[in-house]
Structure formats: structure tokens, C-alpha cells
Q: What sequence folds into this?
């Protein structure tokens, strides 16, 4: 093989050089973060309000969970319609600590004026009745066992979604459930989780959910304008790191294999790859990514309740990724940012109403209709989504060989014959 | 020569239809074998059984020196043990380059973590290039495999099989839809492959089988009708009756 002169890359260049889009993305994200910070109310010029900083921070979290969705759907071909369940679990995990710790400080302060110093039992009872009074309970459910510890609840942000995904994925993939059946199963999973959380005795305050999450315990003196920036930066950092991680994951042979699984799972099996194992790894990793995104999102939203993990949330997630362009990481980010910002504009009542004849279109109600129509339109006419525009700009087109014969000679198989 | 694969007394039925009926088949290490038979003779089902895609209702399939039973193993496990399979229609990953396709097929650790941490070395790139040269795709290394012609896709698939370094290669109708020149190249590739491993070729085309110049097994209604050289089996009266129709 010495006579082969084809250039074999003996030294691998860094990831960002092999994939310029990663570098472009990171630079854009950094500039965006810097720009927003400079214009913010907290430490900048004050052009951007604190509530809009929060909206932007939440949007970055959506972008992160959309990355996860793109990895599992766009790259590995698993149309999971349950990834917002993992997002919600991450939110609940961090919310438990935020709520516990804040309530504890309030209780301790209020008992400080008592004549006798409060016993730990009194404090614990006080916190429990404060938190669970709304659902008529006054004891801590077992799942709150670690709520006093920030490190343990941070671990739960990763462990809870990861474990659920691992168990669910193991059962589903092992039975070779694929395609639309798997999608339905994931919908059932997120619906079951939502229904469970809606119960008052689920231990997570039923439909009240966890609230007051925007207040960081012990930092009451720090204004929200500053806290919002902290979370905005953290979200931007997480998105950047998540993007790098995903780009690394899909760049090498692992990426090759999962895209191959998406395109022809059976063939990959005959190559000797344990397809189920690969799917499980991707499913679990993306669930963890979704959990991290959720843990950053809900402190900015301030409240989490079971409606957040309702099946529709996961469907929206799929719509974002489809509109942005699946199978490319920046597509997912663009889709999530574009659609969720547009959504908050339309549903925020800022969009002007439209009068067509007798039809009076108020966007607060009609936005979902518009979103649904755009989803159908993208699926039918522009399957590559917004990200496909990049290809147009770069004039990269995959050749359309439909109708051409499959071989070089006139006697070769025709496409029609080959499909039979 | 030692037996590499032994299929004995295997039967499979789909909804009452016996696709394979008490089939017994044996192939030695490094042997080239052609399997012929009319449509519905059970040629593809036979391959499905060996590669673990279909579980037989009865019978035994054993493989290797230790005569490991293949019946309880998953498809990927069987492939890892050294049984490669080429499908009737070329199935390459069209979205990926020729080099990526070959790199994926190279014989390496297949578990997810090992794959995640795998970074190709110079030797791996050289092996991919050598394989591409062997199958006549050295110039197309960085083209998307979806852009290749039908014949080139077939070769790429054969190249991927060679990259797997299997001990037993099952090839389903490799010459379908190929031009004469492409067929000749394919015959050479298969004969070359059979020098270092056992190869079973399922084929319709008699000229192609003649060019392979090897022992032939004739299947009919799910069992072996005749076995021997091509001249021997084509003189067999039963074979003439059911297959050649003369």
C-alpha cells in the first residue's frame, strides 16, 4: 500500500477547525452574550429589561434542549416525543433545593425571636408545613430526603432524567420498538409523569408545582436584574459547552454509526454494532442534557408545575427542531430560538390583530394555528428547515439523481426496477 | 479442510408455509460456494437464519472450531464473530462518504464507549485507502456514497465486508443489475476474497456462477436438491426439471 499517495490526515486538527460551523456558532454566541450584557438593566446601559433578559436566558435553555432533541432525532433517528419530561425533571430537581433552602431561612428567621432556641425538629416541621400546606400535608415525602443539600440536588439534575431515560430506553430498545410506536411510547411516558405529578400526594405539591424559584436563598439583597444576568451567562455557557460536546459526539466514528442507525438500522446490526446499546447511550445522554437545560430554565421562569411536562411540550420541541432543520446542530438552535421568541411575541399580545372580512384574528389564540401550518409547510416543502438556507447560500446541493439509471451502461438497473 | 459452518436439519415456516424444510448445509474454511435455485427456494431465508435475522423452528446452526451455536446470538454478535453479509440491494450509507463507510466497517471494537473514544490512526486511513483501491473507488474516497453508480455501490458494500475481515462471507445476488464489465470485476473481487475466507454466493445468473468456477448447491423448496460441480448439477435430471426448465 505504499504506492498510495492519497493524503491521509495523520494528525487530527482540532474540532473547531475541522468543523468551521462550531467556531462560527461559539463566536456568535459569545458576541450575543456580550451584547446583551452591555445593554442590560443590571450592569449595562439599561436598554434591555430584566424580564427580557430572563426571556433570552430561557430561550438559550430551549436551544440546549433542542440540541439534545436534534441529537436523538436528527442524528440517531429516534423521534422521542418525551424529552421535555427530562427537562422538567431537571427543573424539579433544582427547584426542590431552591424552595427548601429559602423556606428554611424564613422559618429560622421567624423562630429566632422565640424565647427558647428552636430544635431541628421544629425547624423541619415548620419548613414542611410551609411547603406542603397547600396540598394538606405537613410531612416531608421521602423524595425530599436530599433537598437540604445543594450538591445532592445538583447530582439529581443529572441522575433523575438519566435514570428514567436509561430504564425506559432499555425496555423500549431491547424490545426493538421503533418508529411511530416508539414516539407514542415516549408520549405515554411524559403523559404518565405529568399525571403522576398532578396528584397531591406525589410529594411535589401537585398542580401547584414549585414556586418562588427565581429567589436565590441567602441572596435576597442581590437585585433580580443581577440574578437574571447570572442565569443568562450560565445558560449561554451551558449552551456553548453543550454545543461543543454534541459536535464532538457527532464528528467521529460515533457520529457515523448513529447516522447509519438512523438510515438503516438492520444494516448496522450486520456490521456488528450493537444498535440497541448505541441508541440507549444517545437517549440517556440527551436526557441528561435536557435535564441540565431544565435546571437552568426554571430558576429563570420562577415556577414549575406538572403542565410543563405535558405531552404537548415535547411536541413543540420536535416542531422547533423540524423548523430549524434537523440533522445539523445549528439548525436546532436556530429553530428553538426563532420559534420560541416568535411564540412569546405572538402570545405576549404584542402582535397586532388582523382583520380579514368577518374573521378577527387575535394572535394569542391563532399563534398555534400559524405554528401548526408552518410545521406542515416546512415538512412538505423545506424538509431541511431554516438551516437549509445555509446550504443554499453555500450552493452545496446534493445531486438529484431520480430518474437516472443506476449504472453506467444502458443495460443497468433502473431506479424503478431497483425499488421493486 | 475443517468445517466452518454447519447447518443441520433446519426448518422454518412462515404462517404455515415452509420456507426452509430440513435443510442441511456445510461449508469448509476458505471455500467458495455458489447457491442457486429458483425464486422462493429459500436462498435468502437461509442467509437470514445464519446471520441471526430469522430464528428457525428446528435444527442446529454451528460455527467455528468450537462449534458455537448461532441460534441464541444477536445479529451484531454473529457479525462480530466473523460472518459478513451482503444484501441483494446495495445498502451503503448514502449520506456518508466512501471513506466513512469503510472506516465504520473496519474490524475494531464495536461497543459504544470504544467507538466514542475511537480516533483513526494513520494505519486505519491507509487500510481504508487500500480497500478503496481494491474495489476501484480510490478516486471516490471523499465522495458521498449516495452519488455512486449502482455497480460502485455494490463494490463499496463488498469493500465494507472485506473491511470487517469476516471468516465467512454471505453474498446475495452480487451481479444483479450490473453491466458485463462490472460483473467481471465483481467475480474477481469474490474469487480474491475466497482465497482467505469462506464465501457463499447466492446467484441467479448461470454465466456468473460458471465464472466463479466452484462447487454449487442447488436449493429447491427449502432443501438441497443437488450439490457438486456446475456441470454435475446441470446434468442432474431433477435440477433440469425444476430449475432450468428444459
A:
Amino acid at each position: 500500500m505504499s504506492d498510495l499517495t492519497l493524503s491521509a490526515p495523520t494528525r487530527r486538527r482540532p474540532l473547531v477547525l475541522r468543523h468551521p460551523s462550531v467556531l462560527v456558532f461559539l463566536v456568535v454566541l459569545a458576541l450575543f452574550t456580550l451584547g446583551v450584557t452591555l445593554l442590560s438593566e443590571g450592569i449595562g446601559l439599561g436598554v434591555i429589561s430584566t424580564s427580557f433578559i430572563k426571556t433570552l436566558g430561557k430561550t438559550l435553555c430551549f436551544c440546549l434542549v433542542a440540541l439534545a432533541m436534534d441529537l436523538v432525532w436528527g442524528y440517531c433517528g429516534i423521534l422521542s416525543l418525551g424529552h421535555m419530561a427530562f427537562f422538567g425533571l431537571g427543573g424539579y430537581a433544582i427547584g426542590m433545593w431552591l424552595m427548601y433552602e429559602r423556606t428554611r431561612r424564613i422559618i429560622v428567621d421567624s423562630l429566632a425571636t422565640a424565647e427558647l432556641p428552636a430544635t431541628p425538629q421544629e425547624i423541619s416541621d415548620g419548613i414542611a408545613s410551609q411547603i406542603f400546606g397547600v396540598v394538606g400535608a405537613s410531612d416531608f415525602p421521602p423524595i425530599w430526603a436530599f433537598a437540604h443539600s445543594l450538591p445532592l440536588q445538583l447530582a439529581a439534575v443529572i441522575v433523575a432524567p438519566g435514570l428514567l431515560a436509561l430504564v425506559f430506553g432499555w425496555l423500549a430498545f431491547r424490545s426493538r420498538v421503533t418508529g411511530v410506536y416508539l414516539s407514542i411510547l415516549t408520549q405515554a411516558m411524559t403523559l404518565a409523569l405529568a399525571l403522576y405529578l398532578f396528584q397531591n400526594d406525589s410529594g411535589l405539591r401537585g398542580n401547584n408545582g414549585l414556586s418562588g424559584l427565581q429567589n436565590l436563598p441567602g441572596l435576597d439583597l442581590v437585585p433580580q436584574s443581577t440574578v437574571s444576568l447570572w442565569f443568562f451567562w450560565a445558560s449561554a455557557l451551558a449552551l456553548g459547552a453543550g454545543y461543543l460536546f454534541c459536535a464532538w459526539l457527532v464528528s467521529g466514528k460515533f457520529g457515523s454509526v448513529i447516522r447509519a442507525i438512523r438510515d438503516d438500522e438492520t444494516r448496522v446490526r450486520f456490521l456488528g454494532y450493537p444498535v440497541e446499546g448505541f441508541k440507549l447511550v444517545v437517549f440517556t445522554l440527551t436526557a441528561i442534557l435536557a435535564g441540565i437545560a431544565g435546571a437552568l430554565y426554571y430558576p429563570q421562569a420562577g415556577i414549575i408545575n406538572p403542565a410543563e411536562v405535558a405531552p404537548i411540550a415535547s411536541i413543540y420541541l420536535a416542531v422547533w427542531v423540524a423548523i430549524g432543520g434537523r440533522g445539523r446542530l445549528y439548525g436546532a438552535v436556530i429553530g428553538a430560538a426563532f420559534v420560541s421568541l416568535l411564540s412569546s411575541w405572538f402570545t405576549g399580545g404584542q402582535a397586532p390583530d388582523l382583520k380579514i372580512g368577518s374573521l378577527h384574528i387575535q394572535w394569542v389564540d391563532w399563534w398555534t394555528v400559524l405554528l401548526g401550518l408552518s410545521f406542515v409547510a416546512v415538512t412538505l416543502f423545506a424538509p431541511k428547515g431554516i438551516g437549509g438556507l445555509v446550504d443554499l447560500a453555500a450552493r452545496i446541493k446534493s445531486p438529484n439523481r431520480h430518474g437516472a439509471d443506476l449504472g453506467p451502461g444502458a443495460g443497468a438497473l433502473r431506479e424503478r426496477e431497483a425499488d421493486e | 479442510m475443517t468445517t466452518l459452518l454447519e447447518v443441520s436439519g433446519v426448518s422454518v415456516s412462515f404462517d404455515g408455509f415452509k420456507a426452509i424444510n430440513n435443510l442441511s448445509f456445510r461449508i469448509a474454511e476458505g471455500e467458495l460456494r455458489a447457491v442457486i435455485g429458483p425464486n422462493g427456494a429459500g436462498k435468502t431465508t437461509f442467509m437470514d437464519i445464519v446471520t441471526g435475522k430469522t430464528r428457525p423452528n428446528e435444527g442446529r446452526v454451528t460455527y467455528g472450531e468450537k462449534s458455537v451455536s448461532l441460534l441464541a446470538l444477536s445479529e451484531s454478535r454473529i457479525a462480530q464473530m466473523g460472518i459478513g453479509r451482503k444484501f441483494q440491494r446495495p445498502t451503503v450509507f448514502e449520506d456518508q462518504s466512501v471513506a466513512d463507510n469503510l472506516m465504520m466497517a473496519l474490524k475494531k471494537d464495536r461497543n459504544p464507549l470504544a467507538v466514542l473514544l475511537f480516533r483513526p490512526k494513520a494505519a486505519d486511513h491507509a487500510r481504508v485507502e487500500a480497500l478503496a483501491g481494491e474495489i476501484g473507488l480510490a478516486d471516490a474516497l471523499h465522495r458521498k456514497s449516495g452519488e455512486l453508480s449502482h455497480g460502485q455501490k455494490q463494490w463499496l458494500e463488498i469493500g465494507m465486508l472485506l473491511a470487517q475481515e469476516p471468516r465467512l462471507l454471505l453474498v446475495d445476488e452480487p451481479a444483479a443489475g450490473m453491466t458485463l464489465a462490472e460483473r467481471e470485476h465483481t467475480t474477481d473481487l469474490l474469487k480474491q476474497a475466497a482465497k482467505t475466507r469462506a464465501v457463499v454466493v447466492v446467484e441467479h445468473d448461470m454465466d456468473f456462477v460458471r465464472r466463479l468456477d466452484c462447487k454449487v448447491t442447488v436449493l429447491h423448496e427449502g432443501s438441497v436438491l443437488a450439490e457438486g460441480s456446475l456441470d454435475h448439477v446441470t446434468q442432474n435430471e431433477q435440477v433440469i426439471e425444476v430449475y432450468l426448465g428444459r
In short: The two ends of chain A are 40 Å apart (CA to CA). The CA atoms of residues 68 and 289 of chain A lie 6 Å apart. Residues 15-399 of chain A form one domain.
